[in-house]
Design the sequence.
């Protein structure tokens, strides 16, 4: 591997995308909010070390599906889920599963940057501390530094670690939230429109970051931007009215989709 | 008389508003599409012109009338030039009593003449006042109606009047507060001319029961505020120990754990607790809690007095629970959902999320509520009057009786009060101390809330 250039590695990875092992499997997933049904028997798999983009018009259920993957919907009153979702072949809705443990393995980054009202350092240290990942102060310092470095924020933040995280710019805050998610070493990172509140430059930085994170994490990203889906993902899933319309390799999806509705949406004819 | 005048002004303003409105409408029809202000503003403008200057005139008249009449009556009484201010005011009040027919004894002929003079002057003044107000209203109405025209900016003038009125209202609150402070400071200053400032501030003995008459048997008197202030702080501290954990924990339970339907029932119930009159809490403290605590204390082998600081403080704590729980509840509810989700998404449990994210984020609101409750506790009167003691004691035993600043103010001012006696004046000094303490608490509360407000 060391002998291969980065580009070559990526190419090799992309080529084998369809063959990458399955990290999460969603089978006949339906979600109800009270009486209202938001998802209809969705079958969607997430491949290891792959960026999977979920696209579709507003209210199509893509965020709802994303939130079923780490049981974030559990926090919403009146939400009910049927079907089966597995992580490494273990059912995550099994009564024996500890939801806290699950969320430590499947992290999440939200649409709006939501750093805690604490210092930058404490924002990162929060997760490792509650999971007991650092034994000493030096351990914690290392985790904070490496997380910030992975999120591309270290150079900007290293001199102001004790300043409040809310004092950063919007793009920096979002990268702080990504660093915070990375700090607990999850296996999967879910991103719910992570760039929709950011300007183009900050968006470009976060996209670059997603690209780099793929080597260590499995990423599922919800996005409203076709270009973003095309830029960052290897697999794309198209939702419409709570149904999964099509799931395919991103290249194929954006050049020659199997479904007419996908074609129409990508061309901007509805949505 | 002035009551009729005010009613007359209100009626005049109403009819002028109607008249102005219809006249502006007529103008509007004449010059379609060009009128600056809508007719209703012209009507309001006329009404303001009619009522406001006349009303101000009425107020000014009322302020000056009595002193002018008094002056005229006094100068009519022979020999009154030689009287000093208090003697002439006593004479004047006698004249007024006679004029209104309250005879305690047969008045002297001079006073009788003066009373007649007073009556006739009052009658003239009343007629003059009515005439002046009516003329002012008429002039105002005339002017207001005259300016109605398509280009007259009636809306601007009405808005200016409303703005001025709002400014006046806000100034009024400030001025009244200043007046209260000033009267407190004035009387307290009076007190400090009789009792040295340092003795009051640093004295450790509080025995204000001094003689009011020369032949009365009473103590020497000691005015050291420390034991009284200490009692207030002891009882407030007990109240806070009861209220702060209960209030915050109930807020956490209601916002984070309880079913929405449970919350919908319990929250209003908790707020009813804030509506219970403090005198009822006083009954509860003195009839139920105090004897229970005394019996318990004696059963456990402690010395316990019937009016314990613990009883008053505990009941006061119950009283202020709603302040803390309601404001903390609001503070928790105001923490964005994104904070909770961010924490859950990192694998935090509910408890960890509450302790490490919600509590720090809601802290300013909670601190604000706690300090508000504390200043309520410090200033609370009825419960302590009924359930706390009267003897100022420096004790750390919560089963002992202590007294508070508010209790002392009440006892000093009840009964025969003589306002040049240090015993009575001490109440104002105590009031000033209380005012300053609660002011400082409120300032700290404001500062804390402002400092941390935009944290998330």
Sequence:
């Amino acid at each position: 591997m060391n002998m291969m250039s980065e580009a070559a590695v990526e190419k090799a990875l992309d080529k084998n995308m369809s063959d990458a092992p399955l990290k999460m499997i969603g089978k006949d997933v339906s979600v109800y909010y009270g009486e209202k049904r938001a998802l209809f028997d969705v079958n969607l798999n997430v491949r290891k070390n792959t960026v999977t983009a979920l696209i579709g018009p507003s209210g199509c259920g893509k965020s709802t599906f994303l939130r079923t993957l780490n049981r974030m919907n559990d926090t919403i009153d009146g939400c009910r889920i049927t079907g089966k979702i597995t992580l490494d072949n273990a059912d995550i809705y099994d009564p024996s599963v500890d939801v806290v443990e699950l969320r430590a393995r499947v992290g999440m980054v939200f649409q709006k940057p939501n750093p805690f009202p604490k210092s930058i350092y404490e924002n990162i240290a929060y997760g490792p501390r509650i999971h007991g990942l650092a034994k000493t102060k030096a351990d914690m310092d290392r985790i904070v530094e490496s997380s910030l470095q992975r999120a591309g924020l270290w150079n900007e933040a290293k001199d102001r670690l004790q300043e409040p995280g809310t004092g950063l710019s919007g793009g920096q805050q979002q990268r702080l939230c990504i660093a915070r998610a990375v700090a607990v070493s999850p296996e999967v990172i879910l991103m719910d429109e992570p760039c929709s509140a950011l300007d183009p430059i900050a968006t470009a930085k976060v996209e670059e970051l997603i690209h780099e994170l793929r080597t260590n994490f499995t990423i599922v990203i919800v996005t409203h931007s076709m270009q973003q889906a095309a830029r960052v993902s290897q697999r794309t899933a198209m939702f419409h009215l709570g149904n999964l319309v099509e799931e395919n390799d991103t290249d194929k999806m954006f050049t020659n989709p199997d479904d007419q509705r996908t074609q129409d949406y990508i061309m901007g004819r509805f949505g | 008389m002035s009551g009729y005048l005010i009613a007359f002004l209100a009626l005049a303003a109403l009819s002028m508003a109607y008249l102005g409105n219809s006249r502006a409408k007529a103008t509007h029809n004449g010059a379609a599409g060009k009128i600056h202000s809508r007719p209703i503003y012209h009507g309001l403008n006329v009404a303001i012109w009619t009522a406001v200057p006349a009303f101000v005139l009425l107020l000014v008249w009322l302020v000056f009338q009595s002193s002018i009449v008094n002056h005229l009556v006094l100068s009519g009484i022979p020999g009154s030039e030689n009287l000093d201010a208090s003697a002439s005011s006593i004479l004047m009040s006698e004249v007024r009593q006679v004029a209104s027919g309250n005879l305690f004894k047969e008045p002297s002929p001079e006073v009788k003449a003066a009373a007649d003079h007073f009556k006739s002057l009052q009658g003239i003044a009343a007629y003059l006042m009515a005439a002046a107000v009516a003329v002012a209203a008429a002039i105002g109405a005339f002017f207001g109606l005259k300016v109605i025209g398509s280009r007259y900016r009636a809306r601007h003038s009405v808005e200016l009047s409303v703005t001025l009125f709002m400014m006046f209202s806000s100034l009024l609150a400030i001025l009244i507060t200043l007046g209260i402070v000033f009267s407190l400071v004035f009387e307290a200053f009076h007190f400090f001319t009789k009792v040295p400032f340092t003795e009051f501030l640093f004295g450790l003995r509080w025995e204000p029961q001094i003689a009011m008459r020369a032949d009365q048997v009473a103590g020497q008197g000691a005015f050291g505020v420390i034991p009284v202030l200490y009692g207030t702080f002891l009882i407030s501290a007990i109240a806070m120990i009861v209220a702060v954990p209960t209030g915050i924990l109930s807020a956490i339970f209601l916002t984070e754990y309880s079913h929405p339907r449970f919350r919908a029932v319990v929250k209003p119930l908790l707020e009813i607790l804030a509506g219970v009159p403090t005198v009822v809490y006083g009954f509860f403290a003195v009839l139920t809690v105090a004897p229970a605590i005394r019996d318990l204390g004696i059963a456990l082998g402690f010395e316990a007095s019937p009016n314990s600081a613990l009883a008053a403080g505990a009941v006061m704590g119950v009283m202020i629970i709603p302040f803390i729980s309601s404001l903390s509840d609001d503070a928790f509810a105001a923490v964005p959902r994104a904070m909770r989700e961010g924490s859950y998404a990192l694998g935090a449990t509910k408890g960890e999320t509450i302790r490490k994210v919600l509590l720090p984020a809601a802290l300013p609101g909670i601190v604000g509520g706690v300090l508000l409750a504390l200043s309520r506790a410090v200033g609370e009167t009825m419960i302590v009057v009924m359930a706390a003691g009267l003897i100022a004691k420096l004790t750390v035993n919560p089963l002992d009786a202590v007294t508070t600043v508010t209790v002392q103010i009440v006892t000093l001012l009840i009964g025969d009060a003589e306002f040049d006696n240090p015993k009575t004046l001490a109440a104002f000094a105590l009031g000033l101390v209380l005012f300053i303490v609660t002011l400082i608490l409120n300032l700290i509360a404001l500062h804390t809330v402002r400092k941390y407000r935009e944290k998330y």
